[in-house]
Design brief:
Largest sheet: 7 strands, mixed
CATH architecture of the largest domain: 3-Layer(aba) Sandwich
Oligomer: single chain
CATH superfamily of the largest domain: Vaccinia Virus protein VP39
CATH topology of the largest domain: Rossmann fold
Radius of gyration: 20 Å
Number of strands: 7
Number of helices: 19
Bound molecules: S-adenosylmethionine
Helix content: 40-55%
């Protein structure tokens, strides 16, 4: 297990997935009859793959992450209003009261976790991952010191590219640049949002890259359609259609079937794959795990994808700050699709990333 993986194993780091579901589904094309492998993380993307009909092995080194996915999967045991209340989206609903209605249905490890962490439920669990708390500090404390609420909300009213480019000129003032660079520096992000180990393979600073990615998402894509951006800037989703699928009424209605198609697996990704038979999987969502691995371990992981993937299985993963892709040594077993990766990357609403890799088992 890498240092980054070991650190991630102990706490709830993510209460939402910050990897764009739409581009993941477009790259991996999950469907009924498929068995796919997904990093579990906060569950949103594993659930989306299961909603598309696939059986999903949702793997994570972190029991806390799996406890969160188990909780999200119990939505069908609750009314829609209570479910949203459980997750902290309905302030009038007592999340702990709702939790106690369903806690008996959780697997034992998840019940233990949430019994010990009812305070996170009370505080609104979707904002309680370590990364979400970091983003919350930005959106709720720092941003109001830079821009008036009206200036922030203006992003969600501008439908034309020209208008957004003009708004960026106003937005990108001295104070924004100074605060952004400090808050999203490697030092502060490692101390408050991610962990120093997650930066183990990162070379150099990250501020300039993140600033350019932020400018791109605010101007080139429409913030009105971007739930990721809405949550960061306003701590809420502004339109129901911008919420992750499992939070929408039609997604909530599917959670009973979906929960039967998802297996929660508590282990390290490569160890899990080594235990699977040849040709098991039709697709892989590797999140940005290769980012945390050295080149040799990335090669080992992709070799396992080539072995456990069926012919045609797509492998999707993000590069945040570390370039990773299928090495030349695997060219006879895995094809790269840089054209598809680039086209989907251009639509990536969760804009932190530097690249989206789409590869395919031969
Ligand atoms: C890879 S992290 C990425 C989140 C986000 N994109 C970022 O970079 O901050 C998402 C999930 O992967 C899990 N994870 C990381 N390395 C893993 C590994 N080798 N095996 C299984 N799960 C892993 C973490 O526990 C976490 O829940």
């Amino acid at each position: 297990m890498s240092d980054a993986t070991a650190t991630l194993a102990t706490r709830l780091n993510y209460s939402q997935c910050w990897e764009d579901t739409n581009i993941l589904l477009a790259a991996t094309r999950p469907k009924e009859g498929d068995r796919v492998l997904s990093i579990a993380s906060a569950g949103d993307n594993a659930i989306a793959m299961a909603m598309a009909g696939a059986k999903v092995d949702a793997v994570d080194v972190s029991e806390a992450q799996l406890a969160l996915v188990a909780l999200k999967l119990l939505g069908h045991r609750l009314s829609y209003g209570d479910y949203r209340g459980l997750l902290g989206l309905e302030p009038s609903v007592d999340a702990v009261r709702v939790y106690r209605l369903i806690r008996e249905r959780l697997p034992e490890f998840a019940r233990r976790y949430w019994d010990d962490n009812e305070d996170m439920l009370l505080a609104g669990v979707l904002s309680q991952g370590r990364f979400e708390r970091y983003l919350g500090t930005f959106g709720q404390r720092l941003l109001p010191a830079i821009h008036r609420k009206k200036t922030t909300m203006r992003w969600f009213e501008l439908d034309s590219l020209d208008e957004r480019r003009r708004h960026w000129k106003r937005w990108n003032n001295l104070r924004w640049r100074a605060m952004f660079r400090v808050f999203f520096s490697r030092r502060v992000m490692a101390a408050r949002g991610r962990s120093p180990e997650q930066f183990q393979h990162v070379e150099g600073g990250i501020g300039n890259a993140l600033m350019a990615r932020t400018q791109r998402v605010l101007t080139e894509l429409n913030p009105r359609d971007n739930g990721y951006l809405q949550w960061i800037l306003t701590s809420s989703y502004l339109h129901p259609e911008c919420e992750p699928a499992y939070l929408r009424p039609e997604g909530h209605a599917q959670l009973g079937d979906v929960s039967e198609r998802i297996a929660l697996v508590h282990t390290d990704l490569t160890s899990h794959m080594k235990a699977q038979s040849d040709g098991t999987y039709s697709a892989f969502n590797l999140s940005d795990v290769p980012e945390y691995l050295d080149l040799a371990t990335t090669e080992e992981l992709l070799t396992e994808c080539a072995r456990t993937g069926r012919s045609g299985a797509r492998i999707a993963y993000w590069n945040l700050f570390v370039p990773r892709c299928r090495p030349a040594s695997l060219a006879d077993r895995i094809d790269r699709h840089p054209d598809i990766g680039l086209a989907l990357y251009a639509q990536d609403r969760s804009f932190f990333y530097g690249a989206f890799q789409v590869e395919e088992v031969r």
